[in-house]
Every structure is written in structure tokens, then in C-alpha cells.
Fold this sequence. Notes:
By secondary structure, the protein is an alpha+beta fold. The protein has nine helices and four strands; from the N terminus they run E-H-E-H-E-E-H-H-H-H-H-H-H. Glutathione binds next to loops.
Amino acid sequence: xxxxxxxxxxxxxxxxxxxxxxxxxxxxxxxxxxxxxxxxxxxxxxxxxxxxxxxxxxxxxxxxxxxxxxxxxxxxxxxxxxxxxxxxxxxxxxxxxxxxxxxxxxxxxxxxxxxxxxxxxxxxxxxxxxxxxxxxxxxxxxxxxxxxxxxxxxxxxxxxxxxxxxxxxxxxxxxxxxxxxxxxxxxxxxxxxxxxxxxxxxxxxxxxxxxxxxxxxxxxxxxx
Length: 224
Ligand SMILES: N[C@@H](CCC(=O)N[C@@H](CS)C(=O)NCC(=O)O)C(=O)O
């Protein structure tokens, strides 16, 4: 059996696809339309009761969810220590610290930026939540800039790992706002990640989704 990934348009399932691609692993993609609320319907909730996309069914039939877990699991299983430093690798601590910083700090802030309406009592506060979220996100970018100053050009020097891939997924979501000028190491790392042969098509898809989602939002049809 093959991996089956529930993901699709506008979702971070792309991170898991990128990990699978870097590892050269085939998978089937089952599209879940989050704009049409498909992730909140009984058929999908039976797979992931939390109602988030992505979910992954492994070749042994196990159902997994939570993107950090999926990407770490696939990378550990299939990259033979390349994408994830082994337990006895001296870089493992710095790697995990960078990875969890992005997942635990930057990601929730970006969620506030993209879904500000979920965090306000009064609609009039939506723009304030969004602009504060962007400020906070740039605070995280400044921290990543410092990490890269210590160890760059990737998070672990010349070695590309999962933390760079995850960083490479999230950063373009604010890069288009033209805010990365003060963070040259972040920009350079992002450009390197984007140039990886296995990943180019995913970044193209991500950019296309960004434009499509902006059009949906302009028509008031984004994710609820
Ligand atoms: N903690 C989950 C969160 C996943 C998540 O937020 N996925 C988004 C798509 S990128 C989603 O399902 N959005 C639907 C919604 O917010 O209603 C994970 O990391 O996998």
C-alpha cells in the first residue's frame, strides 16, 4: 500500500507533499476542499476528528494527523538521517529547537494573520488583529535571522533539513508583502530552499493558491 495524503488547495498538506517528494516516495493525494467546508463533514471527521487538514494514512494503514508529526515521521522513516539528524547527531537539539520554534511560535501567529475574524468579538477589530499578527510574525522572522547568522546559510549550515523545508513553506506566506528586506539571511535561505529541484513545483502551486485565495477573499468567500 501507498501513503494516502488528505490535503489539497490552500492547505499545509503541501509540507507533507514536499517531504515525500524530497524522500522520493510515491503517494496518493485525496483533495479536501476547505473552502467548501469538506473538512468539517462527517466523512472527513471520521479520519481526523479534529477536522484539520492534512491527514495521512501510512502504508501499514495507520491514520495520522498533525503536520509536524506527519513531516517528522515521513522524514525519519525515509530520508536515512538526511532530513532529520539522528538521535546521536550533535545537531539534533539545534534542529528540533528551530523546527518547534516555527511550528509553535510562527504558525499560530500566521493563523491569526490569515483568519483574524476568528479572534475578534467586534468585526471592527479585525484589521488590528491582522496587523498585530504581522508585527509578531516579523518578530519571529528576526529570531530566525539570528539563528541563521549563527549557523546559516541553512538552519544547520550547508546541510538542508526538514526545518528549512518547513520554514520554506511558511515564509512565502508573508514574503509577498515585501517585508523581508531587513532579514537578508532569511531571504537567502528561502531562495535556496525554493531552488531545490524536488520542491519547485510545490512553490509554484503555493504561489498560485495565494493568488486564487486572495480572489476568493475579495469576494468574501474565504475559509469561514
Ligand atoms: N494543528 C494542525 C492544524 C492544521 C490546519 O490548521 N490546517 C488548515 C489548513 S492549512 C485547516 O485545516 N484549516 C481549516 C480551518 O481552519 O477551518 C496541523 O498542524 O496539522
